[in-house]
């Protein structure tokens, strides 16, 4: 049997207690946000392909609560648009997936893949299809009938946003140009 005197038994106690205080204080700093700030998350990049009367991937899965960049490419031979929402009605969705969400939309330069052209981060203030075509078309942004990207054949756009977790669930994508939706250009969007 080993016998320790009182000084030997207590010699490790202050160190152990001090270690507990440091661990507890570190937890307080971490919980209060005073510890080193986390690096901002890089946006999740998701490729979206538009073609004659289809979207890929199907379904399109988008994480909620994280920055996301959709790389929207029109691989078709005619213009297409990307919209997402619920309850399609008269060329738009009654409920816009991106309503009240800060959305940045940039056109990519054709050859280099660099950003070019107009960028929009304004919620719901631009005109609809007709005014967009009259203005030269091909850019995206928030429209009175919903947030959209309209792309000419061969165009690529970046659409960056963070969806709130309250948007989790099943939505739809659609193209409402020239009866494309009626021809089957729609898909499922799942916000996870």
Features:
2 domains; 7-stranded mixed beta sheet; 13 strands; 192 residues; Immunoglobulin-like; 3 helices; alpha+beta
3D structure, described in words:
With 192 residues, this protein is of the alpha+beta class. It has two domains: 38 residues; 148 residues, Immunoglobulin-like. Helix content is 16%, strand content 39%. The protein is built from three helices and 13 strands; from the N terminus they run H-H-E-E-E-E-E-E-E-E-H-E-E-E-E-E. The strands form two sheets. Strands 3, 5, 6, 9, 10, 12 and 13 form a seven-stranded mixed sheet that branches.
Order of H and E elements: HHEEEEEEEEHEEEEE
Q: Helical percent range? A: 10-25%
Total helical elements: 3
The CATH architecture designation of the largest domain is Sandwich
Please state the average pLDDT score.
Answer: 76
Low-confidence stretches: 1-33, 113-139
Quick synopsis:
This protein folds into two domains: 1-38; 44-191, Immunoglobulin-like (Sandwich), CATH 2.60.40.420.
Itemize the secondary structure elements and their pairings.
Layout: H1 6-10, H2 13-32, E1 44-51, E2 54-56, E3 60-62, E4 67-74, E5 80-88, E6 93-96, E7 104-108, E8 115-120, H3 129-134, E9 140-143, E10 146-151, E11 156-162, E12 169-174, E13 186-191
